[in-house]
Amino acid sequence: MIGVAVLGYGFMGTTHLAAWKMMEGCSVLGLWGRNRAKLEEAASRYGVEPITELDNILKNDKIEVVDICTPTYTHVELAVRALEAGKHVLVEKPMALNLGEADRMIRAARKNGRKLMVAHVLRFFPEYMRVKELVDGGHLGEITSLRAWRGGPAPEWSPWFMDLEKSGGVAVDLAIHDVDYAIWVNGGLPSRVYAKIVNLVHKEYRVHDFALITLRFPTGSIAVIEANWALPKTYPFTMKLEIDGSKGVVQLDNQTPIPLKMWTGDKVEGFAPETLPWKPGVHPFPLDPFYREIRHFVECIIQDRKPITDGEEARKSLATCLAAVESSEKGAPVTVGG
Amino acid sequence: MYLVEKVRTGFLGVAHFHADSYAQSLKTIPQAELVGVFDRDKGLAHEFSQKFSVPTYDDMEKLLKICDAVVITSENALHHEYAVKAAEEGKHILCEKPMTTTLRDADELVGLVEKKRIVFQMCYVMRYHTVTSLARDLVVGGRIGRLLVMVGTNKLNRSLPLLRAWFTDKSLSGGGAVMDHTVHLSDLMRWISSAEVVEVYTEIGRNANPKLQVEDSFLTTVVMGDGSIGHIDGSWTYSSGHYTWGDVTLELLGSEGVLQVDAFRQNVYFISSEKPDDRLVWHYYGCNPDLLLVKDFIQCILGGGKPRANVYDGRQGVAVTLASYQSSMEGRPVRPG
Ligand SMILES: NC(=O)c1ccc[n+]([C@@H]2O[C@H](COP(=O)([O-])OP(=O)(O)OC[C@H]3O[C@@H](n4cnc5c(N)ncnc54)[C@H](OP(=O)(O)O)[C@@H]3O)[C@@H](O)[C@H]2O)c1
Q1: What percent of chain B has pLDDT over 70?
Q2: Which 3 state secondary structure label does DSSP give B327?
Q3: Are residues B232 and B109 in the same domain?
Q4: A285 has pLDDT over 50
Q5: CA distance, residue A303 to nearest chain B CA (Å)
Q6: Same-domain pairing of B228 and B118
Q7: Residue A54 main-chain phi, psi, to 5 deg
Q8: Which of A201, A231, A242, A243 should one mutate to test binding to chain B, selecting the residue with the greatest count of B CBs within 10 A?
Q9: What is the pLDDT of residue A182?
Q10: Rounded to whole angstroms, how far apart are CA atoms A70 and A95?
């Protein structure tokens, strides 16, 4: 039995918790947060033990895995402490806010011989996996361009998102999903980045809410990634992808193939079973991307394999997003490296 | 103002497929008369003459003598020569995009058209599409607040440029996808924002069709004079099995809302049960912007109105396109000339 502690019980913490609860061979031994009352409420909902003292997690030998779902600016300290304490670490994306922090995490994992995986969940979405399979199977031929679109209302549910210093803004927080995906399908880092990353509508915050990032890969393949927090509150969270290649084109859009819709009063809700948390006996297939992502991490621990988005791999998308911010500030293309 | 009952219209060059659509449109307009066709390729001229029951002319000058107006749908590189000849003769001109392939030619044409006081209309057909026009009205009416971002695609089925050899022959086309598919979007952006493009950054990628001499894949970021940001993808990279010719999409982001256009989305799906056509195809039932464009041209000539896109708009399209090539070559943002 692998003992697990989840740090943070917000949007991602509860999403991960739901997946951990279904994971065979794993047991959540603690949920951490600072605010005791709120923590206890969440912990009782998921039937896990609330822990406010981090050391009680780090010193507990039964806990092998620490899953970090706290705000981005807290990742580096929590991850390094957990790795130093001999835990395997799963950390939400973006792994950190700068490359110095990312490198500290990577070094700590290496030094302590522990797994570090960054939760780039897009690689576990069934539609994005299917596209990757098509690319790898040669169905598209040589990839020539990729268009990715991701957006919805700004994540104002938590104030820290709307602070550039804490979240990195829309480029580092949101565009990084598609940047990581573009790096995955193109086989590595882009050579050149050009971007416009701005505060469009949320003038009350110091944060970027719109990013338009152009990438050029060493093969000559190009990509454009739009990440958007500048949309009205009624806008459904949407992701789109289009990849063109010498032999064909793939397109996907999470708003089109909604197999189940429900109207209740003034609200319409759409459901795709693949992206709902899997409930045994309720949903027939364990296709939830968060479940798959965490399953992958668990298998990497059991089989001593390298996670698909380990520290080094995740560092690439962070480096690219930071280069994009730099390009936007300079008004010129930037080479990715360092 | 002189009065004619019918605008006698001739075609100077029919190498571009759009010639057929404009001719069909002209045929439905009572105040217009199709009087002749010239093309340096006699075969093409003959085909066109059969299709639209119109005489061919081997000599452009002779055709010009019997025309009030001309439609120039030749190879891009010949637009300038034909337009100058027609303008010199005082003929009204409907010109396919891109207006010219050099800025020098574009400027010369602007001067000449102003001097001759003719109607010169660019075939910026998206200014006539009801959906893009509606989008512009909504933006101008303040419905999405201040306009901040415009992201567009005008992608093309990759098999289409292969149907006529000149499209991929740089000496006749002036270039590939950048030359062909920058202007519709750059013009829409100018039209909707009432601002000029002041900065262009373009990445031309490796080709989807490596056999082409010209580029077929590119991404362009622009900045407008009012500070708004734009993005253009006019690649010729849709699959040759694509259900329709391509697309025009535009996302308009404002301080108070967002508007999304998919201009050629109105289609019924049809799937034949017979091979080899047993795949999904779309039958478009949306508005016919070509007809509205040609009608406006004829009305401007008869009624003295101003076309929605004039010779200067043509020039600005050329400037953005050429800046795009320069940016890609130099690896930096460039200000259009
Ligand atoms: N993969 C995805 O699709 C996805 C989606 C959204 C977010 N994320 C990422 O997941 C991470 C968490 O995001 P979220 O939306 O879950 O955040 P959230 O809802 O704000 O939750 C944050 C949690 O962390 C705890 N926390 C611990 N230290 C904190 C501190 N110093 N400041 C604030 N909260 C602190 C909070 O509880 P206490 O206040 O009790 O400490 C809370 O439970 C971020 O890195 C984010 O970028 C990923």
Answers
A1: 99
A2: helix
A3: no
A4: no
A5: 40
A6: no
A7: -60, -35
A8: A201
A9: 98
A10: 11
Do A219 and B210 make contact, defined as CB atoms within 8 angstroms? Answer: no
Distance CA B329, CA B323 (A): 10
Q: Which atom of ligand 1 is nearest to the CA of A12?
A: 16
Query: Apex CA B44: angle with CA B42 and CA B47, to 5°?
Result: 110
Is B323 found in the same domain as B212?
yes
CB-CB neighbours of B115 under 10 Å? 10
**Hey, whose CA ends up nearest to atom 18 of ligand 1?**
A10
| Complex ipTM value | 0.85
pLDDT at B275 over 90: no
Does B234 lie in the same domain as B87? Answer: no
Residues of A in contact with B232 (CB under 8 A): none
Q: Is residue B335 part of a domain?
A: no
Domains in chain A with CATH codes: 2-122+294-309 (3.40.50.720), 123-285+316-330 (3.30.360.10)
Between A69-73, B132-136, B273-277, the lowest mean confidence (pLDDT) is in B273-277
CA of A14 to the centre of ligand 1 (A): 10
pLDDT (mean) for A265-287: 54
Q: Which residue's CA is minimally distant from atom 31 of ligand 1?
A: A74
B26 three-state secondary structure:
helix
> Which strands, in side-by-side order, build the sheet including A192-198?
A249-253, A238-245, A143-151, A222-228, A210-216, A192-198, A334-335
pTM of the model: 0.91
Place of tokens 């570090």: A116
**Which CATH number characterizes residue B12's domain?**
3.40.50.720
- Digit-coded pLDDT (tens) for A206-241: 999 999 999 999 999 999 999 999 999 988 889 999
Which residues numbered 215-234 in A keep a CB inside 8 Å of some CB on B? Answer: 216, 219-224, 226, 228, 230-232
Of B175, B139, B117, B134, give the one whose Cα is nearest residue B328: B175
DSSP string of B214-242, one letter each residue: S---EEEEEEETTS-EEEEE--S-B-TT-
What angle, 0 to 180 degrees and rounded to 10, lies between the N-to-C axes of helices A11-22 and A289-302? 60
How far is ligand 1, taken at its centre, from the CA of residue B271, in Å? 48
A278 pLDDT exceeds 50? no
Residue A143's Cβ-side half-sphere holds a number of Cα atoms within 13 Å equal to 25
pLDDT digits (tens, 9 = 90+) for B241-253: 777 889 999 999 9
